[in-house]
Amino acid sequence: MGGGVVAALVVLVLAGAGIAGLRRAWAIVDVEGRSMEPALHAGDRVPVRRVPLERVRTGDVVVVEQPGLGRPGRPGAAATTSRPAGRRWVIKRVAGVPGDPVPEAVAGVVGAVPGARSSSASSS
C-alpha cells in the first residue's frame, strides 16, 4: 500500500471512531404530545447529551426511557428516537433530586409532605 492509501484509511478509521463516540454521547429525540409546552412542542427535534445521573439537577430537562409507556396511540408519549424498535422516551423537567425539599406542586403526586426532604428523585 502506498503512503496516501494508508493515510486515507487512518482518516476514515478516526472519522468512524469520532462518529461512534458522538452517537454514544448524544441522541436526537422527536417531541410528541403537549406535556412540555410552552418550552417544547410536538414535532420539535431535541439534541440530548447523555450524562451520569449524579449530574442531573433540579430544573434540568431530562429524557428517560419508560418501558411499556408511550406505545403509539397511548397517552404519555413525549418523545421518540430512531434507536432500536420499541424504545420510547419521556421528556420531563426535574422537580427535585434526593435531598431537595419536596415542591408543593408535586407533593401529592409523589405521596410526600410539602417541604420535607426527598429521599429519591422525582420529576413533574
Automatic annotation (TrEMBL):
Domain of life: Bacteria
Gene3D superfamilies: Umud Fragment, subunit A (2.10.109.10)
Peptidase S26 domain segment(s): 11-102
GO molecular function, one term: serine-type endopeptidase activity
GO biological process: signal peptide processing
Listed InterPro entries: LexA/Signal_pep-like_sf, Peptidase_S26
CDD domains per record: S26_SPase_I (cd06530)
Protein name: Peptidase S26 domain-containing protein
Organism: Nonomuraea cypriaca
